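Notebook entry, structure prediction.
Reason for the run: the old model in the group folder had no record of what sequence produced it. Starting over properly, with the input documented here first.
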Amino acid sequence: MVELALAIGVECPLWGGISPGPLTNDLDAAVHRVSRIRYVPGYRDFQSSLRFLPTLAIAPDGESIAYVDDANGQFNLVTQALPTGNTRRLTAGTDSTVRRVAWHPGGKWLLFLADDSGDENTQLYRIDAAGGIPVRLTDAPDVQYSAAIGEPFSPDGRFIAYCGNDRDPADQDVLVLDLSTDEVRRVYTGGGRAYPGHWSPDGSRLSLAEWRTTNSDHLVHLITLDGAEPRSLTPYDDVATYWLGPWLTDGSGFLVLSNVGREFTGLAIMDAETGALTWLDTPDWDVEEVALSNDGRVLVWNVNVDGFAQLRGRDLVTGADIRMPELPAGAATGLTVSADGRFVVLRLSTPTRPWNILLIDLDSGDLRWLSNARPVTADSATFREPTLVRYPAQDGRQIPGYLYRPEGPGPVGVLISIHGGPAWQELPVYMHDGFYQYLLAHGIGIFAPNVRGSLGYGRTYSDLVNRDWGGGDLTDLADAVAYLRAQGWIDPNRIGAMGASYGGFAVLSCLSRLAELNWAAGVDLYGPSNLVTLAKASPPTWRSLVAAVIGDPEADADRLMARSPVTHADRIEAPLMVIQGANDPRVPRHESDQIVERLRSRGVEVHYEVFPDEGHGLLRRDNQAKAFANAGEFLIRHLSD
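New structure, fully documented this time:
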């Protein structure tokens, strides 16, 4: 599309005055023509000037923070001095992506995880805080390593806790690296997927979460470095979430986020001897993150209230609640509290503001932005806020969603945006790095529902999609179309769908299995088209998860094929765009190849873009800009009048 319209002006010499005549008439006409020219914004105008991954670390002395941004086009490690705001760029990878960062307790170096071209085989590295060449701590390109969920370093800084599937591709063991000797101990080999959590204050114990059949079915164990058998703290027969948090300073227990016996995830202390829970907060919403100062005094947690972040705090010494400031209306991740409890940092975004890093002074309640990522050139004053709505499903449920209406009376086309996961949640953020605002500026509305299977609305709601992909969730999307067509400002003949990963599967399902709804267009970003081939190609450590959430590719083959969009591809008539990363380990390229080949054989309009240096997602800035600019042009062409 045309991103900038140019006008040809009239060049004239300097005059002491302008005399009437033909020249004046020509100039007036030129000025009139220029005044009628309207700047037509492109996606790159809305793209954020800087992106951040959801990983933050505060230096032990509280004077600096570490984070990951894409200032050079790829995600790399950065530190920022808090008193001055000065930054130091520690890595400059062009093929690798830094995914996670942690600060060594001594403060002189950092640990980070990075993979290559999106393959998700992350390796561990160390780098001096003053800069230099990163040093590999692991070197197994075909293995997925991950640092401990919480603080990977033992309190004395001698050990690093991490996990990896280097012994058996199907099992994720827990390992401990002794930095003083370079010795690696394999401290847990229980099978399946195990994730180390946090070290006890004396460094003698390590909490561990064993993920069973789904990512919401956990067991909690304690392990030691002396080779003793792990000690289980949770009943084997319970199905519940346990997200591990920091230990109390006396070593008597540690924080957990759990929904055991509850619909929503609350905050509790788990006794390190008995596993008994003492609840600290049990809201009718999910507690999503928790952080504790090193001195054990300041406890801060984040509650997801209908998608919006709400911070809560408590002084564990006095028992008094800490008054937390109201955050801008959006979502937050990466919650971290300084060692002395003076301040909190987190990553926050709203529907009209890109993700940025925010510091909260807990004494004064003041908010200070540590970054200033903003739209490249688009005017945020013109951006549109969503309305949180709920629409009726056929089974009587009320399905939540965010409805964005463009300026003007309508009728307008609308894009249904379907999040990935499916255990994920559409949030009120600067989605797809400004893509929503870009479409709104072109007169296209957005409806982003949280259909059944979404997080944030209780465990019953999120579990409804398990082994039912393309079932009740697809019915919810059909009901979304009915809801939209009942709105007077929406053109019922110009409704499209877009989604990534599971959302891409949902788009392909809508266009094929709900073809009678006469979709105007669809955009599928790395979504599976064949549930059988997807399940068979899943990474070895994910097999139990895939069987529980999607189905077994052998035992459930008939049902999975009946729900697969490729089975119904002959019904697709709507124009389709497909975007895929060549190195995607979660949804391999073959998933997109299958549907594209079927549609091209029938002469259906399909645009296919494969990015050779991407995995599951678009991490390179240039690739993101190209993919969403092209998707935007495609949707504007098919959803505009």
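Summary: Residues 1-37 have pLDDT under 50 and may be disordered.
The old model has been moved to the deprecated folder.
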